[in-house]
Amino acid sequence: MAVNPGEARLKIVSADSHVVEPRDLWTSRMAGGPFADRAPYVVEHAEHGYAFVIDGLAPFPIGLAGAAGRSSETLSTRGEARSGGWVVEDRLADMDADGIAAEVLYPSIGMIAAQSRDRAYQLACFQAYNDWVAEFCAGGRDRLAGLALIPAFDVGESVAEIRRAHAAGLCGALVPAVPVEGHYAEPRFDPLWAAFEELRWPVSFHVLTGGGGSDPTLGSGIRLIGLMSPIHHIQATLALLIFGGVFDRHPGLRVVSAEHDAGWVAHFAYRYDQMFERHHNWLGAGVRIDRQPSEYLRSQVWYTFQKDPVAAETRERVGVGQLMWASDYPHSDSTWPHSRQVIERDFKGVPQDELAMIVGENARELYGLGV
Hints:
By secondary structure, the protein is α/β, with parallel strands linked by helices. The chain has 14 helices and 11 strands. Helix 9 packs antiparallel against helix 10. The longest helix has 20 residues.
């Protein structure tokens, strides 16, 4: 029997929502430090309206990051962002209006800072953000769970920031999609994964944190072709963690694929099992894994999505316990303020116990939420 998500007893948790950082976050918190004159700041951009400027990177428009609730006809980079992005009481009010019990919070502008190639500067930006989001969540009446930004330049600095942010009360982290040099399966990154494993902190790979490379438009300049590139990136990352032995060396490591949807996972797992079985002898020189690729994907990886009915349809292949619904508030693709209606539409026919897991219980268990 399917459940009506409008019922008050169904506690919905968004496993991937966002803050919109206040305009003075970095200018105030980095004042007096070595990067005071380079702290991210806001300017009025002629084409995009208000935008954050991060040293060495292109300006990032604020409008789309806070465009939840706007119609597609009015969607653009211009316009005011919803104040729930940075005002905690407004945040809780918008959650109540949407029927959301709790949220796991990712950054917005902070994810762009993950693309910086200046080690000390990036660390200073990350630390300022982590301090702010910990304070923001502390005012959220146990309904907000913040994730820390962790750098990937120097593993010793990474581990130190993990422990510092953990002590501040944050509940997980995200790392840049790719390190500046090398790759995440190198042994030098093992202390990073070991720290996440020890603290039982889920670590996320989120869109917009880097990981580009070849031209996704195939030289055409047609930007719509690139809409699938984030999924290609996370697929390569998960394959790296499997075939690079990271999951075998760290069986307690829990990884989150954030905002890449999840309808692709069933076929991805099937194809890798099939192709690994057929071709590992000649393609897999030096590769030794303990399980089938799909077994790692069903036990050590979780997947967030907001509007993906294919994820619901393929849930048994992926693993019901690995799927986590999200609202993406207050970003432009958010389901706010119609999240319960979206859930009712996309999960039609899903049994009550499975629905409760996907829209709330899985996230509560993964992040240790007490909602």
